[in-house]
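Kindly inspect this one:
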Amino acid sequence: MKASAAATSTDAAMTAIRTLAPDAAGLGLRRALMGAVRDADPGDFDFLECAPDNWIGVGGRLGEALSDLSSRYLLTCHGLSLSLGGVEPFDETHLQRLRRFLDTHRVPIFSEHLSYCADDGQLYDLMPIPFTEEAVHHVAGRIRQVQDALGRRIAIENVSAYAAPYQAMAEIDFVNAVLSEADCDLLLDINNVYVNSINFGFDAHDYLRRIPGGRIACMHIAGHYDEGDDLKIDTHGSAVNPAVWELLAEAVRLHGPRPTLLERDFNFPPFAELLAEVSTIRRILGRDSRVTMRHAHA
């Protein structure tokens, strides 16, 4: 009984300590950025995000560097390989190791893509799910399995796509149905909303208006590649497009500030340029949060 009570007390303390402020601005942790991130001045960013799939079991110099960073900054985690939309059973060993990793680093938010990425082996890509009632029930059930295994709510991310296997409903209706049935949170990827709005011809602003704001745990923003007027590719390899910044500001106006993270995976510019984009996130969250507060008191 004493051990159980102590564990409960520890869990509660960890939850209280590892809480992200709604106006927190973060940066995706990539190994190519490790040196610059560790040398950054306090206040350059508020939190970091890593893909636990790339870090579970890593020791030595890199493992020590991650532990150092997670002791200095809040660390969120964004999964790559659970394949929530897949049909193969989850790897229970991986889920156990993932839970230990999240607990060890006191991770406040774990998210995973609303897609599938495995079919008799890893596909090494995020494949779109059919937007059907059957798929809603299937994915929601698998999300509940993951939440039970990890002992926490998770957030699902709206993903970018370039072809649709079958759409019996709009993307926003599918996302909302999964959120409701699974009773999970949302990682709102602003760039993905923009990319898909161009690729599939829907109204990005209407999409944002229809999101249940209470389920937004955090947001992502990133750059994309302009393949053409009607095709955008989500690359995370360039600066954020002005239209995507505008959508972020719109999301904040509609739903209030949420912890927002800059993703950059390659074509890394000087670190100061990444920090300038983090500062832009801060300005949008701070400016629009004050607007929201003025409206609330009007």
Q: What stands out?
A: The chain has one domain: 21-297.
